[in-house]
Amino acid sequence: MLSAYGRDVRWMPKNGDKFLVVSPDCLQLFATDAESGRPTVIAQHQIGPFLRCFDIHPIFEYLVACGYASGRVVLTSPCRDASEPATLAGREFSRSHSRQCQGLAWNPQQQYWLAGGFEKYNRTDYAVLIYDVWSRPASVMTAATVDAAWPDRHGLHKLSWVEGTTTGPQSVAARPLYELAQNETAYSLAWFTQQHRTLVAGLSHRYVRLFDLRDTSKYQQSLTTKSVYGLSVDPFNEHRFCCYVENTLEVYDLRLRNNNKPVFSVNTPNSAPIVKAQWDPVRHNVLTCLTKDSTIIQQYHLIQPANAAAENAEYTHMDRHVGVSFNAKKSHVQGRRTVASFEWHPFVENRLVAVSTFDDPDHLVVDTTVCEHVSVDWSPTGGLAASLGHNMMAFTDPKWPASEVDLSVVMHRRATNNYGQVAGANAFTSCVTLLEKDDAADDSLKWLWRWMERLSNLSRNDDWHYECRFPGVCSMMRARLSQNGTRLEHKQLPDQGLPSTRVYIAMERDRILRACGWGSLTGDRAEIDVVIDKLIEKGTSHPRAAAIALFCLRLKKAIEILTKASDADDEKHTHLRLVAMSLAGYQGTAAMWPELCAKLLPTLTDPYLRAMFVFLSCRKDADTQFEPLLQMSGLALQDRIAFASVHLADHPLIEFLDHTAAAVVQDGDLCGLLLTGIKPTEDCIRLLQNYVDRTGDVQTAALVLIHGGCMAPGSTAPAMLTVAEHPLTPSSTPALRNTSRSASSARLAEEGTGDATPGLNMVEAYLSLLNSWRMWHQRAVLESLVQGRTWTPGAQSADSTSSATTPTHHRIPSQVFLACTFCGKNVIIGRKVARPGQVGPDRARTNACCSCRKPLPRCALCRRHMGTHLPPESDSSSAKGDHFASWFTWCQSCRHGGHVLHLRQWFQTSTECPVTGCGCRCQMLDYKESSL
Fold it and tell me: Of 94, 649, 739, 838, which has the highest C-beta tally within 10 A?
């Protein structure tokens, strides 16, 4: 409908530099000059008075449908085009009585359909009429033109109508194809792009109703609202449309049951009445409106909530003012700056054409580009980044080069490769294998999953009595001290050259060594030999292998390793030969040995070679003499912890572990989980939070919490805190106050009275990230892992099938159900309720609704009701053992469906719906959806 000023503007659908300005008595076609950028008139066409609405054909862009106050609908053109059917211009559609035409809309796919909205004349009239512009009375068609009068799948054929004795186009009182909304008045209407047989119309200041042309006996959906003007369907989300009334702009979502409530509503500034509202055809979630007597255009960037389909979902928005200047030199003239209408370019971003209320041709229209807001932000490393549309400029400090790898791309690639998605005994092995091939994975990330794999094996093969599945070294030592303490043992080594050395051996210390990847020192120490041999096989870990052998008091083994590795003639292996010769001359703690170490250490670059000399020079009675070695940052954290568990007594060891744990938690080092363990405690959660703050890798943090059993509170162990008991629980966390939370958040809410933990926030952030990537399968797998990762002390494994690992929480109720066509209730309710005296399973009839007992839908091919037993077909090998084949499915467009097996067989030879008379190409729609 024309704006309140009787003037509107539209871009040509195909030609990006031409637009049409419509006035009450004239059509003007403008073209923007490529050099000057100024629009000029290239064609003009006079039309009759009292024009009320118009619409441009989506294929033949010079064909314009005009609706008048008398009810006439006229097809006209501002100029002729070779691709346009010549005789369409001038055709008229009229009724026997006069009714004002309020709106027109061409169907975007069935291009020969034109919908019109009209005022109410009497109780028998219809408000919405749909015409076929190619239909003509048989009296004016010849046999030569009948065969060509049906359009092909690409659009409209060029037809040549024979007018009989007349020489020009005439007004034809053609009967409409469809008549909708009886005894109503239509104020606006719009087609859906993909569901091209679906129409939405604003009626009688009270309703917005959805009509499906496959069933015109009634409307499909109705909303009670006064916002019946300016209906516009979101081009990127057909579940949403906008409309307005007076100064209120609203957006509705058809997926909501309580759809009388808009998901977005805003009042214009100063309560000015709205003239026009439009979705941006290029950018997502951008809605624009114009108010009366305004010199600016109001733009709203809708921010869609994570649970957009929930009943209580509410959109937020950011608004901005788009100023339009028709002539900068004469901007002081108020009338020239008032905007009458506007239109966004159909495929060029931020390009806008606006028409003014002034009649001067020099100041009538403006073709301009709206500049985006420039977003500026500092990077954590001190660089500056600025974004403008799709472009970004980065200014980095040379000391901090920009990362060439985008972490979001890395996380997306890992999620696609099922990172952390495998359940059972192979969960950690799959992660280790995946990260070994990932160039973006650092050593700490690879070590983390190897450590979790190692502890998972220990928990199955050892007497594991801890409060969590992945206990830290600190809790393991304290658990031992609370029982019997550790045993001090003097041991004479078989190797010659080292005197009697004091080491500390206990069951808990052996477990610490295994957790660090060393192996036990008890028995014949075969585990240590296996670890050393694996390091030698790598070819690049000879210094570390020799250092571990020396720390385990095997001097001869260390010398042998260095001697064999020094055969290569390069500089690094020359150092190995020199170190081997020096170790061979070791004779206890003579005075000359520290002097030799002091001279040799500055020449060594490998931290493990340096640590070997520090160890031999510090071997005295006092434990504190090993402090220089324990503080060497070049050594891996697990090696320093393993060394301390062998050579330090209980209390010095506890002090060292506590001090080191505080440092790694502050740094957010994943290797620090060896000390803190994986459990919902302050140290573990803070370490992961610092890691996420430092790297942004929320994916790994969430997977660690899920696989570590931290998302299953309520255990009897003291460390498994409920939500209210968590030390880092914030006073108010609004991130999880939505009703449609995930299963993990719902379970935590049942256990405590407080809000979500920081660990839960990290998991929810990653699950939301998977939703934004449309990785529904990966999201569902993680939810199932959350359900099955309850850890109980004394259980052998969280992956086993014993009852000790079975989650004790209530099952989350279903949030999606199949509704009955007649009563709208869940068709499955009551089906599993046992009757008195019933022994076997319920064999009652399952092909009817349990509430109203009306029959369920039929299969379009076998005509059996949904729920009827589907007998196996002996000649179909694909049906054997395929339980999914008997399931019921349906098309989301035409709502026809049937058994999966039957539909598979049908669509192997056909692309159209099996229901007679339905032309829906269900299979092609699925293909189009999957290719997006």
Answer: 94
Q: In b/e form, how buried is each residue of 778-813, taking b as 16+ CB within 10 angstroms?
A: bbebbeebbbebbbbbebebbbeeeeebeeebeeee
Q: Is 761 exposed, middle or buried (CB count within 10 Å of its CB: 0-12, 13-18, 19+)?
A: buried
State yes or no: pLDDT of 714 exceeds 90: no
Give the helix/strand (H/E) hosting 675: helix 673-676
597: how many CB neighbours lie within 10 A of its CB? 18
At 792, give phi and psi (nearest 5°): -120, 130
Higher pLDDT, 837 or 907: 907
Among 189, 180, 133, which Cα is nearest to 161's?
133
Say what the pTM is: 0.52
Three-state SS string over 226-291 comes to CCCEEEEECCCCCCEEEEEECCEEEEEECCCCCCCCCCEEEECHHHCCEEEEEECCCCCCEEEEEE
Look up residue 713 and give its two tokens: 């509170």
Beta bridge partners, 376, equal: 386
Which CATH topology does 48-224 take? Methylamine Dehydrogenase; Chain H (2.130.10)
Strand partners, 40: 31
Q: How far apart are CA 918 and CA 905, in angstroms?
A: 18
Instruction: State residue 59's pLDDT score.
Output: 87
The four Cα atoms 608, 611, 615, 618 give a dihedral, to 10 degrees, of 180
The yes-or-no verdict on residue 799 having pLDDT over 70 is no
Three-class secondary structure of residue 821 per DSSP = coil
DSSP 865: B
Domain ranges within the chain, ordered by starting residue: 48-224, 375-402, 487-648, 877-930
Show the CA angle centred on residue 362, arms to residues 356 and 367, nearest 5°: 60
DSSP string, 381-433: TS-EEEEETTEEEEE--TTSPPPSS-HHHHHHHHHHTTTT---STTHHHHHHH
Structure tokens at 464: 């594991």
Crossing angle for the helix pair 650-667 and 682-695, nearest 10 degrees?
40
Q: What angle do CA 347, 350, 351 make, to 5 degrees?
A: 70
Write the CA distances from 250 to 190, 210, 244, 475, integer angstroms.
Answer: 16, 17, 6, 57
